[in-house]
Design brief:
By secondary structure, the protein is an alpha+beta fold. It has 4 helices and 5 strands. It is globular and about 45 Å long.
Length: 174
Amino acid sequence: GKSSDEADRKREYRYKIETEKKMLLEQKDKCPTNVRTNCSNIKDKDKDKDIDINNIIYAHGNLDHTMFGTLKNILKDNWLNNPANYSIKLSTDYANTVWEVFSVYTIPTTSDYIRTTFYGDEDFLDFVSMVKGRSIKNFNNTVKADDKMLTLSTCYGKDVKLVLHAKLIRLDVK
């Protein structure tokens, strides 16, 4: 039935993500120096204190507006046309951060926007260009090779993801 198909799709999506994580863990001792990833942090006991190149947060868009239940609002004109919305504040046990939105889009389910390993600056900037090219709005900001990225992702109907990308603009360590 319908719920069985959705459950299978979610299992497949989680499997893809877990496969990428396992691959990174298996490669942790083989990280070439030209690869931008958190290979060195994987070994650290305190790795959650470090900010990855692409920090990915997935959550359900619950109807009661919990978790990412309001993320769909980023597609509305009143959100898109209000620059005050372009800053995201994220607080962890380690730091308070501020991120600047540079891309917002929907896309049929894929895993190409959740990369965490990049083979040099050019590869990273090609990735940034790809996700900026998908954006429904030009946010008129620049992402540089040494920037850190935040990716928010949730389901947006069947077989579609809603995605937001932002770059780190402020880090206050606690």
